[in-house]
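Hi R.,

Here's the chain you asked about this morning:
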Amino acid sequence: MRVKRDELTNSWAWCGRGTVLVALIVPVLACGQAQPPRPPSPVIVDIQWAAASTIRRAAPGSDNWPLTWGDDGSLYAAYGDGEGFNPKVGRKLSLGLARIEGGPGNFKGVNIRSPSGEQYGNGSAGKKASGMLMVEGLLLMWVRNVNGRGKQCQLAWSEDRGLTWEWADWLFAEFGHCTFINFGRNYQGARDEYVYMTTPDGPSAYDASDTFVLARAPKGRIRDRDAYEFFTGLGPDQQPGWSANIADRGPVFSNAGNCRRSGISFNAGLGRYLWWQVLGEGTKRFKGGFGIYDAPNPWGPWTTVFFTEDWDVGPGDTGSFPTKWISEDGRKAALVFSGEDAFSVRDVTFVVAQTGQ
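And the predicted structure, written out as tokens:
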């Protein structure tokens, strides 16, 4: 079941596939379909997915897949509860590392072995990556499930592209699934001198929250807990407010009971941030839905690009648009998602409003 924008009313009101468009005022009540939490995007008016038969899959049995574009031109990734790409590592890891070379149609995954980075443990008992970012040659990773019960986030970093890792002596006990906002190669094209992080506002990577939180730190002080500021909301001038006190944090995105795992990256060609957010409880390996939202700034205003509770394939629990695989004009991209418990890649075309051309 998919909710689709009606081009005549600029509303979201399709119920199922091939059904009749219902009146704007009753789409949810009449169809039993959840409504997107944000209005339609004024820039991306439609999204065209490549046929399901064209999806490329690799590293079967491994999921998660946060990604970043490295300084050497490769994508760097982490996977969970698996043995990575062929040839597999030979033992199931709760956190494994990999480098992905090539484009979305001819990629090659290479496992990175790292005794100081790899982790073991099943499910919530094992540490897993939730965010990856390379900034001026420093590879950063947010890690979840720090307390062994699916809660808390910790930062790790590598100065040799994932071979060896150091771990912060602090963590965010308040958050459970921290992830970075990704820009271009080696953080090129970033909006300013900060690194941005988003997370559901709750300590668990397995329980939903009502809101997402936005935080930032100067890119030269990412490893310093005292450098972080938290988004408090927009002022009367619509400028973002920030506070060093975590208790002052406010929501950057709200969706009651549905703020879970996500991935976010900047589409430079369109000048829009793209935020993939999984929907619903339980695993989505083989069936489920998600929303894609866009905005001109990390703090919004966020609008809906795509929304479905039942995609034509399983979306997995995580997804993102690697910036390396977004075309220069921003209209072609590839979604990397963990459907079928694998590194899954599906091409996509963004249809842009005439005013955005």
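Residues 6-31 have pLDDT under 50 and may be disordered.

Let me know if you need anything else.
M.
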